[in-house]
Amino acid sequence: MLICEAGDSLSRFFHTTRKVGKRMAASPRAPHAPQPDSPAKQRKLERRSLIKKDLKRNKFIYLLALPIIAYYGIFHYGPMYGLLMAFKDFSIADGIWGSRWIGFDHFENFFNSYYFGRLIRNTILINIYELLFAFPAPILLALLLNEIRGRIFKRTVQTISYLPHFISIVVVVGMMFDFLARDGLINQLLGFFGIDSIPFMSEPGWFRTLFVGSGIWQGLGWGSIIYLAAIATIDPTLYEAAKMDGAGRFKQVLHITIPGIMPTIVIMFILNMGSMMSVGSEKVLLMYSPLTYETADVISTFVYRRGVLDSDYGFTTAVGLFNSIVSFILLVASNTISKRVSEHKLW
Amino acid sequence: MKTTIGEKCFVAVNTLFMLLLCFVTLYPFIYVFFASLSNPAALASHRGLLLLPLDLNMNAYKAVFDNPMITTGYRNTIFYVVCGTAINLLLTALGAYVLSRRNLYFKNMLMLLIVITMFFGGGLIPTYLLINKLGMLNSVWALLIPGAISTFNMIIMRTGFQAVPISLEESARMDGANDLVILFRIIIPLSMPVIAVMILWYAVGHWNSYFSALIYLRDRELFPLQLVLREILITNSTDSMMTDAGAQDRIAIAETIKYATIIVSTLPILLLYPFLQKYFVKGVLIGAIKE
């Protein structure tokens, strides 16, 4: 997984800095130095000359890096600086720095507000449903696709199943509104079986099912690619050996294929945990209406309404920050647990 | 090897399941396509699945193409896709090149600072206020610049660049080539598969995105197609398109106009998709290879 590479770079970074430190501490001092510097000072000097040499040799590359550094500085670290607003009584006229500090007032307001329980419940429930249904679905599809022997048939199914991934979310939700309307296609079909028409899109009880269900429809095929790739790397001799031992197809899947793709599954699971708190607000925003807020309103849509539409900037920044911190903790926690339990990890 | 009855059953059920999956995936598009070509009145009284257009009729498409909102939206979207993807590619390639350099003292630190942004960020409101402060609100720049680099894509591209043999680069350097020449004349031409994948991913992303336009744009003249679609499909405003229809016909034709808009906005992707599919998949697999 690409992300593991990113994770690798995290651990590599910490690792190399530590190593460099050790090596430099251990390096023998020049014996004929007139006034031996303290080790710390010498380390500093050594490092400075290293940097100087590097800057000289790679000056053109650093020049090329400038736009990239500027981009990340402005558009990624700039908003992080803006997080200060969460602790301030922010007003546009005073700016971020000039506004009055108010400590954790925004957070307290949020935790005590009427919406807090509802937002947390909706956000977490949608994610739990996704974990239960949308997460295993592509794995299952990959396992089933792998059992298909006809190559052309397999390719066709794959091609068709990837397609919805490229359709815009606006079109997908638009089609849902149309097909699931009171007199829409689904209700017409239900009518043939004598079932009364159901107001799917305005019924709070249906929201989670529709959200997760349409997510599976759109992402099933695309999600299976990564598992199919993992299956393709399994050593074929393992299957030969299993056949010799008399294992049937089901046993082969259970004892070879699934263990073979386990690392991929675990990595995907950890990533999923990391996004536990960030339900795709772009889709909820299109799907929900005041009628379904009760089950549909999640943290990110609340931030959009109160922040962008009602200009309550300080408060919603605090809500957003709370959300990011919980996500980050979940990501780190699931990685740590997985490291203990299974040795598979992101970093 | 002999197949058991159980295995035969499994193969049959599995095949059936795959056929069902194909049907469920494709039929909504087929229905929309047939419905868009149907006579509004006939469609309104029809129940159940459509197997062919009812009473072939192109009026919905005429209404769609006569609508200035949709044509402007189309033009705007093409502009955002072309310019946005160009900016994306330039900056992503630059970043990937820098990160693919060996022996760069600050590389690990740079990488760390970039990777952090994949897991933690300022969030919606601080970003919104920043864009506001930079004066990009209600301008095309708000859709082009803030998302100029996808960190994920940049790391994929870096992995692609690292696969270029270093000997080629060294001999070019002997001949006096500088980094820009090496990037544009050697590394990029030799990494065309990755570049192709990036073009496709970024372009599809721009084509389909609506959220940044929703928060940053006020001026309707700048709206991309997806935002216009949102109004037509979800907030239900097809009225402007039917100036010369009676109240009864309005409701009926509104339906077919919706279907026609879906087709018109999705057609480019649907037509290109079969040819580009292998590149999309390749991209996922490049990303899946661990260094």
TrEMBL record, chain A:
Membrane topology type: Multi-pass membrane protein
Protein keywords: Membrane, Transmembrane, Transmembrane helix, Transport
Pfam entry (one): BPD_transp_1
Stretch list, region Disordered: 25-44
Listed InterPro entries: MetI-like, MetI-like_sf
TM region(s), chain numbering: 60-78, 124-145, 166-186, 206-232, 253-271, 313-333
PROSITE patterns, per the entry: ABC_TM1
Signal sequence region: none
Name of the protein in its database record: Carbohydrate ABC transporter membrane protein 1, CUT1 family
Gene source species: Paenibacillus aquistagni
Origin organism lineage: Bacteria, Bacillati, Bacillota, Bacilli, Bacillales
UniProtKB/TrEMBL annotation, chain B:
GO cellular component: a single term: plasma membrane
Signal peptide range: none
Domain ABC transmembrane type-1: 74-272
Protein origin, superkingdom: Bacteria
Example of a GO biological process term: transmembrane transport
Natural source organism: Paenibacillus aquistagni
Name under which the protein is recorded: Putative aldouronate transport system permease protein
Membrane topology recorded in Swiss-Prot or TrEMBL: Multi-pass membrane protein
Assigned protein family: Belongs to the binding-protein-dependent transport system permease family.
UniProt entry tagged with the keyword Transmembrane: yes
Main location: membrane
Keywords: Cell membrane, Membrane, Transmembrane, Transmembrane helix, Transport
Residue spans crossing the bilayer: 12-34, 78-98, 110-131, 143-161, 182-204, 257-276
CDD domains the UniProt entry points to: TM_PBP2
Intracellular or extracellular location(s): Cell membrane
Origin organism lineage: Bacteria, Bacillati, Bacillota, Bacilli, Bacillales
